[in-house]
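tool=predict chain=A
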Amino acid sequence: MVPIKIAHGEAKAWEILAALPPEEVCRNAKVSCDNTTQKYFITSFGMDFCVSPVEKTISSNDPQSDLLLDKLKDFFRLGILWYLVNAKDIPFTGRLINPMDVKGGQRFSAGTYLLPTRELAEMFGRDKEGFIKKGKGFGGELQKYGDVSLRLFPLPRVPVTLILWLEDEEFPSRADILLDSTCDFQIASSDIIWAVTLMGAMVMLIEG
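tool=predict ok
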């Protein structure tokens, strides 16, 4: 279920995006555009998407894209649109933070906003290679945290790092989901940060 605060934001995002100078959007969001058709081209989870403010559509020819365009469409559409509107041309710091540390992120620890770290640990706690294979299938990059970790890119300037500690005889498996400290410069709303972070976990959890 999509929290009410982000459920009605798509129309406003399309309106703002249509009024922004394309060259500014391209520079800030690290995307490209076709000035003739006024379409933007953006990579998400290793897949290429076309965003058309004129037609108000988001499309892709990638065979895996139905995961984002259908199963996760509410989170994906809002995330990509508000990112294009708000992104800033600043580099990653490399300093990872818990989503709960962003402004308004205290909600991410319970209820509707609870991120599925337990589910990630349960699915991959005994399957390091499966975790790596699944993540690389979505453009993931291996990192050096935990027993195994991946950096995924839901959006070009908003990486999501998944860290997994495998189950052993002494301890159960566990997982963390972390963000670069610049995330709230790239996306102004904690609701949208939550949606983008959630997608980083859900692409790993959804079968097929």
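The chain has a mean pLDDT of 93. The two ends are 21 Å apart (CA to CA).
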